[in-house]
C-alpha cells in the first residue's frame, strides 16, 4: 500500500481526526485520556504531518501482538520506532515523553496513515502491543517514557550522539508541563545547553493540568519560559491551537541551544462539553450511563459527527 | 462469594491520622489514585501536596521526620524508590526517620507496564539497613496497615492494595506475625499480597487431589521470621513453593532460600514470580497467567515438587475474581 504523502491532508484535518478518534474510543471504553486530545491534537498533528522529517513506516500497519520484553533471549524484539520510519541519518526521531498521551499519539498515527484503525481496537487489550501507557514496544514509541521527566535527557543524549556522527536528522521530544516539576527536566536542559545541543527541540503541551487538577493548586511552577531560558534553552511561547504560530515557533533559530516551544493549550479545546469537569480532567470517566450519553451527544455535536452508537452496556 | 471492601485505605488512613496528630499526609500528584482525596478535602491542614517531584518529597519527608512528624508518603510504589533511591537512603533510612512509604499498585497489579510496575521493590527495600517492609494481602490488612506501620521506630515501606479489595482475614495485620492458612505436611506454600488469594483458589483442589499443603501468608517481609519458616519447612516432606508478585531474585523466594540454607535444612524450593524478566502492560489476571504467578502455576509447581499428577485443571480451581477496568473506585484505568 503506498504511503500517503505527509501533507496529503491538512494539519487542521488531522487534528480534528485525532479528536474524533480519541472521543469515540473514550465513549466506547467508558473512559480515557480525553483531555489530552483536546490540548495536544494540533501539536501531534503538526509534528507528524509537517514538522518532522520521517521516512515511511517499517512496521505492519496492523500492530503485531506483544512480542516480549527486551532480553538476550528475545532477539526479535523491536521498539515501536518503526512507525516513525527507519533509523536513517537524515530522518528525525520523536519521543513522546508523557506516555499516557499514547492514545492521542496512536490516533495521530492512524490519521497520518502510519497505523491502521484496527490498531486502536487493540488499545489496552491483553496481549497487545498497543498499551495504555505507551511502552517502548508500542506503535510510535521509541523509548520507554511512562516515568515522567526522563524524555528530554534521553533525547539530548541521542541528539549529541547523532550530531557527533554527522547525522542531519533532528531529535524532537513531545513533553508535558507536569514534567517541569521533576528535577531531571532541569538537569536535562542544563546539559543540552552546556553541550550546545541544537539538533534537539521540544514541544511542550502547557495545559496547566496534572493528575490532581490545576498545576497551580498542586505545585506552582512559576514562569516556565523564564526558567527554561535561564537554564540555557531558546524558548518560543505560542497558542497551541494556532498552527501558524506553531510553524513560526519551529522556525525560530537556536544555534548552540535546544529549542523548547511552550504550546499554551486548553484542556477542553474542541470539547467544551468537558468544561464543568474542571479541575478534574486528567482522566475522563463516566459515573453513569446518563452522564456518558450527555457527554456523547454534547461532544459529538461539537466535533460535527453523530453521537457514537453504543451496543449493550 | 468473597466480600469486597471498597477503598479500605481511604477510611483507615483518615481514622489513623485523626487519632495521631503527628501524622502528616504527603502526595505526589496521585492523590485520588492513592485514595487520599477525601482526606485532602476534609483535612487540608494535615495534607501536603508535593507535586510530581518524588526526589524532593523523600528528602522533605526526612526533614519532617527530623521535626518530629511521622509523614505518610503516597504514590505508586515504583515512584517512591526508583528515582528517589538516593534520597531514601540518605534522608530517611540512614537517620531512621519515621517516614511511612505507602506504595500503591505493587508488582503487576497495574497495567501501566514496566515504568509503573514495582517488581523489585521488596528486594531493594529489604536490602536497606533500618527499613521495615510490609505487604497487604486483603482488606483487613489494608485497614490495619497504618497503625502497624506507624508503630515502627524507623522507616517503613508498605505495599498497599486499593480499590475493591477482598476480605480474606478477620484479624488485623500484626507486625512480625505470619498467618498459617493451612497446616498440611506435604508442601509448604509461602505467599504474600495478591498471591495469597491465588493459593487460596487452589486450596480445595489440592484437598481433593490429596495433596496436603501448609500455607503461610506473610505480611511482614522485613524483619523476616526465618526461624518460623524453617520450622514450617521442616514439617513438610516434599519441600517449599514460594509465589510472589515480584521478581524471584531478592524477594520472598530469596528470603526463604537464605533461611533454609542458613539453617542447613535440605528442602527443595521452587520460586514462582517474575523470573529475571520485566513485565508488560495488561490486566492482572492475564499478567499472572503470562508470567506464571497464578493458581495454575502453583499447581504445576507442586506437581513438579511432589512428582504427583494431581489432575487439577483450570475448572477445578476457584473462580478468578475479575477486576473491572473502569470502576468508580479507581481514579483511572491503571
Ligand atoms: C515520575 C512519575 N511520577 C508520577 C507519575 C504518575 N503520573 C502520570 S501523569 C502525571 C501528571 C500529569 O501531568 P502532565 O504530565 O502535565 O500531563 P497532563 O496533565 O497533560 O495529562 C503523573 C503524576 C509518573 N508517570 N511518573
From TrEMBL, chain A:
Cofactor entry: thiamine diphosphate
SUPFAM superfamilies: Thiamin diphosphate-binding fold (THDP-binding) (SSF52518)
Annotated Pfam families: Transketolase_N
Coiled-coil residue spans: none
Keyword Magnesium (UniProt): no
InterPro entries given in the database record: THDP-binding, Transketolase_N
Protein name: Transketolase domain protein
Organism field: Rhodobacter ferrooxidans
Biological classification of the source: Bacteria, Pseudomonadati, Pseudomonadota, Alphaproteobacteria, Rhodobacterales
From TrEMBL, chain B:
Residue ranges that the Swiss-Prot or TrEMBL entry lists as coiled coil: none
Keywords, comma-separated and alphabetical: Thiamine pyrophosphate
Cofactors: thiamine diphosphate
One protein family per Pfam: Transket_pyr
Membrane-spanning segments: none
CDD domains tied to this protein: TPP_PYR_DXS_TK_like
SUPFAM superfamilies tied to this protein: Thiamin diphosphate-binding fold (THDP-binding), TK C-terminal domain-like
All residue ranges annotated as the Transketolase-like pyrimidine-binding domain in the record: 3-167
Domain of life of the native organism: Bacteria
Family that this chain belongs to: Belongs to the transketolase family.
PANTHER family, alphabetized: PYRUVATE DEHYDROGENASE E1 COMPONENT, TRANSKETOLASE-LIKE PYRIMIDINE-BINDING DOMAIN-CONTAINING PROTEIN
Protein name: Transketolase central region
